Amino acid sequence: MDSDVGSLVSNGNIKSPESGNIKSPESGNRQHPHVFCNQVLKTLILFTMASLACLVLYHTMAIEENELERVLKKAAMPNKTVIITTLNEAWAEPNSIFDLFLESFRIGNQTLWLLKHLVVAALDQKAYDRCLKLHTNCYFLKTQGIDFSGEAHFMTPDYLKMMWRRIDFLRIVLDMRYNFIFTVRTLTYLFIIVYAMQVFYC
């Protein structure tokens, strides 16, 4: 029996009686060099992709902020006040209420001068394109993964998302040290704007 044990254990190696192969106790715990290299390579690729994604996102945000700064600076009054409204495709068709809204500035009593201080935040591409045809101070308020082109009814999920996006946009405007008067596209609010600006400048 001792001879059998001696034949199974030799120089720290274990010999399997069935297979006749010799196995090292440490061989099961060792990784082949190419396996380790593959793991390192995968980690580096993931890190690089994450870094590039962050860089692209930062660059995109910087471009959008610079564009917003350009629009606000162009539209601002001497005291850095602008008039802001939002627009989406549902309200941007020809001869729509948006056309009437802009026209009301042109034909109103002492309201034409306010038009150059109006900033239109377009919520989708078609609304932005339509705004550029009619007005000079247009900003594309992009929202990743959400389509704001349709009409959002009061208190529906899309309506609430749109409201929160608008609130966040107005916060950004304030963070950039601009004052604003926010308005919806109705004539009643236009009269309120005129009255507010008269009081503001008195």
UniProtKB/TrEMBL annotation:
Superkingdom assignment: Eukaryota
A Pfam family reported for this protein in Swiss-Prot or TrEMBL: Nucleotid_trans
UniProt feature, compositional bias: Polar residues: 8-29
Molecular functions (GO terms): transferase activity
Region described as Disordered: 1-29
Presence of keyword Transmembrane helix: yes
The protein's name: Nucleotide-diphospho-sugar transferase family protein
Keywords: Membrane, Transferase, Transmembrane, Transmembrane helix
Tagged with keyword Transmembrane: yes
Membrane-crossing segments per the record: 44-63, 180-201
Source organism of this protein record: Abeliophyllum distichum
